[in-house]
# Entry
Amino acid sequence: MSPWLTISLAVLFVSTGAALVRLAATPALAVSFHRLAIAALLLAPFAARNAHRSWPVLGPRDAALLLGAGFALALHFATWIASLSYTSIAVSVLLVNTSPLFSLLLTRVFLHERIPRVVRLAIPLALLGAALIAAGDWTGSPGSLFGSLLALAGAAAVAVYEVIGRGLRHTLPLDAYLLGVWVAAAAVLAPIALFSGVPLAGYPPRTWLLLVALAALPTLAGHGLVNKALRSLSAPTVGLFLLGEPVAASVLAFLLFAEVPGRWTLAGAALVLAALIVVTGQGTEPEADERYGIR
# Structure
């Protein structure tokens, strides 16, 4: 398969995540748990050998990092999926895609990596765009602003996940790393959901089909195709292609739910995407970034 076709299909699969969440119409904690748990079950037969070989030899520090990555991923899904109950798909997906900016700040603070000057200029541009998006989504009720804040919290959480993942990239095979993170994240979400009174069972067959689709399409298929494309294309090129996710997700939202972004949202989206193009084009995101295909 051509790498260009591969990455195009990856963007398409990744972009289905928000629409599938909306169609499931299930509490965010339940969706988050089952998406990760089912994805882990689907991946387990293929990752079992590497996991059995690499997990037992992890040192205490690396084991703690793996658990920390799982906690951050659980927080990402819980907040981002919840945001879809308060705001539009376009706003939610645009804001959660600002995670590379949070990653830059984290790597600067904790890993002491230098941020190129042009990227430093792109950060306030993205912040202005996010402010315009939030303003365009404001309906006068606290709920709309809360949805934007949840999406930004999801971006920050997945940035923490990415930075932790960089420290484990050369320690664990990718499939063993993903299986460990997904199991850890599901283990974090299960008691939180039960303590919050969110049922994890008793859903109709249609809901279970949508939950399986969430695990299979944006998670396994999207992530797998992105990693396949990274074997032939550079990480910045793949990152630029993945900026098509907010556009494709917005098209799906229009077709399925008749959601039409407002003028302020479109203006903010233009600024955010321009800033992300600068960031991604500089190659500042980690190669083989675990964020790819996560939604």
Notes: The chain has 13 helices and no strands. Residues 284-293 have pLDDT under 50 and may be disordered. Residues 140 and 156 are 25 Å apart (CA to CA).
